[in-house]
């Protein structure tokens, strides 16, 4: 299970251009891919049902297999919603952005519903999914329609891009500062330089 999650997380991080600190559940959500462990469970259940019918000497009808897959998919979404409700959405709490919010407010809830730095993006988001921006409501809306999914994904992309740019600018500003002191030189280095 760990190897499966690690492989999917790496691919999902690259697809969504997310930081490595973003949680597995959040990066799956951002990249639009269902968790493989849940999908594998659906496939295993369909296989188990087919095997049981074949043991009894029966062959399942294609309609039955389609129904089993649909039931499994519905169960998959239900279980994923439960897992997402417990996970930190997007992992934004670990992204430093002092230009936008103070450390005490680096949470997904704050970024999504409160932070004034995202009012324009939030207006577009609430126009698509409604005014309730609690994490369970947002997750429910995302899973409910492609339009809501696209709106939340767009909000997340814009916020993460702005936070990344703010981080880069702080790093650039720190690079222009003079060093505090010169690096220490050791005796070996001085001896080697004198021998040249």
Instruction: Let me know the largest β-sheet.
Output: none
Q: Helix fraction?
A: 55-70%
Number of strands: 0
Strand coverage percent: under 5%
Q: Give me the Rg, rounded.
A: 24 Å
Q: What is the rounded distance between the termini?
A: 57 Å
* Unreliably modeled segments: 87-103
| Class of secondary structure makeup | mainly alpha
Mean residue pLDDT: 77
Count helical runs.
Answer: 9
> Would you list the SSEs in sequence order as H and E?
HHHHHHHHH
Shape: flat
Note the main attributes of this structure.
69% helix; 9 helices; mainly alpha; 196 residues
Structure characterization notes:
- The chain has about 200 residues and is mainly α.
- About 70% of the residues lie in helices and about 0% in strands.
- It is flat.
Secondary-structure map:
Blueprint: H1 2-16, H2 24-31, H3 36-55, H4 62-86, H5 108-114, H6 119-129, H7 135-144, H8 146-176, H9 187-195
Helix pairs in contact: 1-2, 3-4, 4-7, 6-8, 7-8
């Amino acid at each position: 299970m760990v190897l499966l999650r690690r492989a999917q997380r790496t691919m999902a991080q690259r697809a969504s251009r997310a930081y490595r600190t973003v949680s597995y559940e959040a990066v799956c959500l951002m990249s639009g891919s269902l968790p493989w462990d849940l999908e594998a469970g659906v496939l295993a259940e369909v296989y188990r049902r087919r095997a049981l019918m074949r043991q009894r000497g029966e062959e399942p009808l294609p309609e039955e297999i389609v129904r089993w897959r649909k039931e499994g998919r519905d169960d998959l979404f239900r279980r994923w919603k439960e897992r997402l409700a417990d996970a930190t959405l997007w992992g934004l709490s670990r992204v430093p952005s002092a230009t936008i919010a103070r450390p005490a407010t680096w949470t997904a809830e704050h970024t999504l519903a409160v932070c004034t730095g995202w009012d324009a993006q939030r207006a577009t988001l609430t126009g698509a999914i409604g005014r309730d921006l609690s994490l369970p409501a947002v997750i429910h809306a995302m899973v409910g329609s492609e339009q809501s999914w696209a709106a939340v994904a767009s909000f997340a992309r814009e916020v993460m891009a702005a936070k990344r740019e703010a981080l880069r600018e702080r790093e650039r500003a720190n690079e222009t500062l003079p060093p505090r002191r010169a690096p220490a030189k050791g005796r070996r280095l001085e001896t080697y330089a004198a021998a040249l």
